[in-house]
Amino acid sequence: MVGNGKLRRWRFLLHKTSAPAKTKPEKTQPLDEFICPISGLLMFDPVVVASGQTFERTSVEVCLGLDFVPVLADGSKPDFSTVIPNLTLKKAIANWCTSTGTDLPRYSPDYSLIKDSVRKLMPSSSQDEAESRLRDSERILINEMAEKQPATLTHAVTQLNPRSVHYNRFYSSSSEESVIANIPDTPPLPLVTRPSCYSSSVSASASTSSEIVADETLDPNSSFSDDQNLSKKLQSLDVFEQEQSVILLRKLTRTDEEARVSLCTPTLLASLRECVFSRYSAVQTNAVAALVNLSLEKMNKVKIVRSGIVPPLIDVLKSGSTEAQEHAAGALFSLALEGENKTAIGVLGALQPLLHALHADSERTRNDSALALYHLSLVQSNRVKLVKLGAGSTLLTMLETRLAGRVLLVLCNLAVSHEGRSALLDSNAVECLFRKLRTENVDSTESTRENCVACLYSLSLGSMRFKGLAKAARGAEVLLKVEETGSERAREKAKRMLMILRERDDGEERRDWEALLEGGASQTRSIKAKAGQYPSRSTDFSVTLSKPNTMRKLEARKRKPAPVENKSSPAKLVKKGTEINLTVNDPYPAYHRPTSEECRSVRDDLLAFHGFPQQFAKYREQRLKIVSNGNEYGSTMSPTLEPADSSKESVLDGLVSTILSQNTTDANSQRAFSSLKSAFPTWEDVLAADSKCIEDAIRCGGLAPTKASCIKNMLNCLFEKRGKLCLEYLRDLSIDEIKTELSQFKGIGPKTVACVLMFNLQQDDFPVDTHVFQIAKAIGWVPIDADTKRTYLHLNKRIPNELKFDLNCLLFTHGKTCRKCIKKEDNQQKKETGSCPLLNYLMKN
Questions:
Q1: Cα dist. 424→557, 616, 674, 781 in Å?
Q2: Which pLDDT tens digit goes with each residue over 416-465?
Q3: Is 385 a catalytic residue?
Q4: pLDDT category, 747, cuts 50, 70, 90?
Q5: List 251, 301, 751, 804, catalytic entry
Q6: If you read the UniProt record, what top EC class would you report for this enzyme, in one word (predicted)?
């Protein structure tokens, strides 16, 4: 009985385990959401398109390449105009594969396989049309790049890849501003997307080996076409077999773009990386050449950099053979076209070898190294590294060589940054560029001359040194000639520079004195020396203030005894238009309030009473982040701080918001800004809109015609000056330079500039509005007869930098809520309570 019981229990267990065995195949079937509707495969990289459906990324790229929109099972047609990664679905697929034991896709599906699947969905007429449209230009490209084609023509025949019209697969432009010339008659160098070393022919060093494997390359079914088998061959211990494999890979990827995509897998890249390290010249050279071919596809560029292949490329560029160096420079140039790679390549240490390669014996190495530096210098971090490497003087010495056109592209990028501009001015760039323009070389092109003018124009922006350097180099006569005979863009820039050189002496004197008087002579000197605009050693004032009459006035002022001033004798003002320029350092030099202790005490009392205002909390967080990251520029300069995401308020957003807040309540100004952004999502839309439409959008904020005119004028001036609507470049300037830049816009007053400085640029400034002004007078921080402009200058001199932001926000908030401080009995929004944290200061005053 016991044995029978055990047998029954055993049979029962067998019966229970048989049920899940039958249902197991049903559980391993993936959900329909995990399957790409086009390829029918489990998705490796799911993306959401504009119409809401999810596809495999490769499927979308194939459809865009063939210019084909499939009809889905439900009869709808997807919209491929926007592609967004679906990370949630990708994670869900990974979890499902883990729970069911299904193999997770390791690579994106084969491009050619998906292409065949899409062609089956296409009608025969559409398929023939797409095939003809894709292949005609490619046949022309291959024919023009025949084996006998000279190397110097490779740039000209590959300026724009034919596929780029469809989905920007081969070329990625940077979001940074570029000031290079764009001559429509000849393809500009910045649009070159293929290295000089790329050619449809194999190098002479590999010709013998190529003949051995020629028959294999013609066989499409060869086992070498499998990336796994090819990877094994590349890792072979037999050097001859390794060489044959890398030559075959080079030939397979030379003209077949589908092979480039399908073979660019992590496994093959790891094997190819070991070949780049090879001590055998033939293996190393062909490996780097194969890498150049793989890098021509846009989708491969990020994969290659992430595979860790850049450091061995840099080693080849440093110490490889001549041909290997050509390919290494070409590979770095090709990889630098992708925006995501620019910072990484700079961090990995490619900048210094590329600078050294500009003096290489091979012309191809020099050309590709220069273009690589151009694309890498589109990123601010790389521009700073180039300045530290002394690239400015190196590049300026090459303006008289055949590499001048490419070198000027890099100089233009350096000149748009504050660090690069200062370094170039110190390297005598103004004289070098004017000499280049003055010398009429036979081989000098219109684009080269225009880039010279563009670089000079960038050096002239926000720099007080440019005028003196340009006059010393006799630049006015050169600019006059450019204004007469140059291109349209060159004439416009030359005209603006001539206006700078022709400014009256008193205008220059006024700007220099403002810089000196706002910060003091010694403070301004230290600021400019730190920013790179003045030499670090002590220099005579005649270098700083170039006009003789300015120097005479300065000497006369030193000899003249300082007048004794009191509260009843305010500083003398010189009024010009709407600006008031002070002729003294502090309008109330005998008025010694507020003290640092007084400012700190008022700050603490207001903070305990109100808490920190929530409306300014986000700006305070931004300032705290800068402090925690370490501000190497001190209190007068801020490091380059790019917006962390698209939701963060830009400098231009802050400027327009401040304009809309004038003479209205906070609620109305916020409504006006929201209405403006709702009607015109981008600032380009505002610029193109009619003034009446802008007025209607901001009418709820009051003074709509005046504010609309101010915004429209500011956007027009900004676009004419910078070529795009962006003020982020102000983050790289000093406070004096920022004030100079913003004051050029009509309708932008000192209070608006101060608000942008404090809130959007995280600078130490103290704006004075009505509330702050009235409280300052009430507690005796300024004389009773003070005005807002003198109060602004006086408080900025007296209040410590570290207290300015918190104290300003708290005084503004308190002024809106306390009727005792501003003495407005009729405002119902004021607190009726008798408690005021500033009551003691009011009684003392």
A1: 34, 39, 42, 45
A2: 988 888 899 888 899 899 988 887 554 467 888 888 999 999 998 877 78
A3: no
A4: confident
A5: 751
A6: transferase
